[in-house]
TrEMBL record:
It catalyses: guanosine(37) in tRNA + S-adenosyl-L-methionine = N(1)-methylguanosine(37) in tRNA + S-adenosyl-L-homocysteine + H(+). Specifically methylates the N1 position of guanosine-37 in various cytoplasmic and mitochondrial tRNAs. Methylation is not dependent on the nature of the nucleoside 5' of the target nucleoside. This is the first step in the biosynthesis of wybutosine (yW), a modified base adjacent to the anticodon of tRNAs and required for accurate decoding. Involved in mitochondrial tRNA methylation. Specifically methylates the N1 position of guanosine-37 in various tRNAs. Methylation is not dependent on the nature of the nucleoside 5' of the target nucleoside. This is the first step in the biosynthesis of wybutosine (yW), a modified base adjacent to the anticodon of tRNAs and required for accurate decoding. S-adenosyl-L-methionine binds at H219, D257, I258, D288, G289, N328. It comes from Rotaria sordida. Monomer. This is tRNA (guanine(37)-N1)-methyltransferase. Keywords: Cytoplasm, Methyltransferase, Mitochondrion, Nucleus, S-adenosyl-L-methionine, Transferase, tRNA processing. Gene3D superfamilies: Met-10+ protein-like domains, Vaccinia Virus protein VP39. GO terms for cellular component: mitochondrial matrix; nucleus. It is found in: Mitochondrion matrix; Nucleus; Cytoplasm. The keyword Cytoplasm applies. Its EC number is 2.1.1.228. It holds the Pfam family TYW2_N_2.
Length: 443
């Protein structure tokens, strides 16, 4: 049913729930219980938020409230459900019901309150666009909607029982620690949350670390390509969305983040998600990304490669494994690849003997007219000696108008079948990306 709300609600700054109350007239019929499950009946029921459309009437009868937009006369019902014509003839009538604030959805309430020009402007977040992180609802409201921020927050608290805190982002993400300043609009000021992703439970202080639930699909996609005994280096690990499920899977994990708070919560999350019967091998660090690459990642990779060549036991244990380097810092990650470029230019003959393939998943943003060409051009300046057939480009998501996030997959020292380059499921809807995949596979 399309509810019409009073025009007096427009521009409301303080939430007055009583102003949403109205009385409407709706059609009804009384029918035996056995007919309630009829499919034709479900199509014409009165559907309102938190509203009971089937009521007890007599011991063997139920009163069914119907949608007044669809049912004007009893003949409208008889056409839909001739099987119960007898009961329709006997009982069809109209009844007045009271609709309150409880019977409206978030979208209906916000639309009734905000000025029409804001509603029509699709670039303005009017309350429907938010992320849920544990008990926190996180908004990124545009300036035009800020006068209504507190009333939007209160509606969210009222309508989402699991939400205890509503916050609004104030500034862009800090480029070093990747957290951002926000204001608490309503609810409990507690920002320590618990949430579930990739079969793991994560706990962290949302005010001090970076967490984006919109990346959950990407986290799952990477975890799907991992296998037990793979060796995973996460350069910008955050609180562990990649490495915690990787560790649970049985990977050997080396995880780093420059933010001390991320280091703290990543340690907690790795410990709490360990299998009960056997603990996994993991190592965590609180270093700058370049330092972690130079002093931990690359030396350890060299050590693993040498051990496999020289140690038969290690060879049997790890010969089917792969090394995965994760670099999820889209604003800067590409620039860190200069460390790898420098490393690849030395001891080339020795590296050619290596057995374990190395897969680098480096995330970046692009605003270029041709997104892939833009990324390829920048990458070529940093990794000039990497062949095009060693690189795959995959669209991840749109983060803003004219700004997309991509994953650059760089494949090194892979002596196995080229078809194994991509074992992940691709959910790409951009022709340019699909064509790039097909071109790379054909090579």
């Amino acid at each position: 049913m399309q509810l019409t709300l009073p025009l007096s609600l427009k521009g409301m700054i303080e939430l007055d729930r009583n102003q949403f109350t109205q009385i409407i007239s709706v059609p009804y019929i009384n029918i035996p219980v056995k007919y309630i499950q009829l499919k034709q009946l479900k199509d014409i029921l009165l559907i309102l938020h938190s509203f009971k459309n089937v009521r007890d009437f007599e011991p063997r009868l139920k009163q069914i409230l119907l949608d007044p937009d669809m049912i004007k006369t009893k003949n409208d019902i008889i056409k839909c459900i001739p099987l119960i014509e007898e009961y329709i003839e006997q009982s069809f009538d109209f009844i007045q019901i009271t609709i309150t604030y409880e019977n409206y959805t978030i979208e209906q309430i916000i639309k009734a309150i905000l000025p029409d020009d804001l509603i029509k402007d699709k670039s303005v977040n009017t309350g429907s666009g938010y992320s849920l992180i544990g008990h926190i609802a996180h908004f990124n409201l545009r300036d035009e909607a800020l006068p209504y921020k507190h009333i939007i927050a209160q509606v969210i608290l009222d309508k989402l029982p699991n939400v205890k805190t509503v916050v609004n982002k104030l500034h862009e993400i800090d480029s070093v620690y990747r957290n951002f300043e926000f204001e608490i609009l309503a609810g409990n000021p507690n920002t320590i949350v618990r949430c579930r992703e990739c079969k793991a439970i994560f706990q962290f202080d949302f005010a001090k670390v970076y967490w984006n639930p919109r990346l959950s699909t990407e986290h799952e996609r990477i975890v799907e390509i991992l296998r037990p005994n793979d060796i995973v280096f996460d350069i910008f690990a955050g609180v562990g969305p990649f490495v915690v499920p990787a560790s649970m899977l049985g990977c050997i994990v080396y995880a780093n983040d420059i933010n001390p708070e991320c280091f703290k919560w990543m340690n907690i999350n790795l410990k709490k998600n360990q299998p009960k019967k056997s603990s996994r091998e993991y190592y965590i660090f609180n270093l700058d990304g370049r330092e972690f690459l130079r002093t931990i990642t690359l030396p350890y990779i060299e050590n693993y490669q040498k051990q496999i060549i020289e140690d038969k036991e290690k060879f049997q244990y790890l010969s089917n494994s792969k090394i995965v380097i994760l670099m999820n810092l889209p604003g800067l990650a590409l620039t860190f690849l200069d460390v790898i470029s420098e490393w690849l230019s030395i001891n080339i003959e020795e590296k050619e003997q290596w057995i374990l393939p190395i897969h680098i998943y480096c995330y970046t943003f692009s605003r270029g007219e041709d997104r892939i060409e833009d990324i390829r051009t920048r990458l070529k300046l940093i990794l000039p000696n990497i062949n095009n057939d060693q690189i795959l480009y995959r669209f991840v998501r749109q983060v803003a108008p004219n700004k997309d996030m991509f994953c650059v997959h760089i494949n090194l020292f892979n002596k196995k079948n080229k078809d194994e380059l991509l074992t992940m499921k691709t959910i790409d809807n951009k022709d340019t990306v699909v064509k790039q995949f097909q071109q790379n596979f054909s090579k």
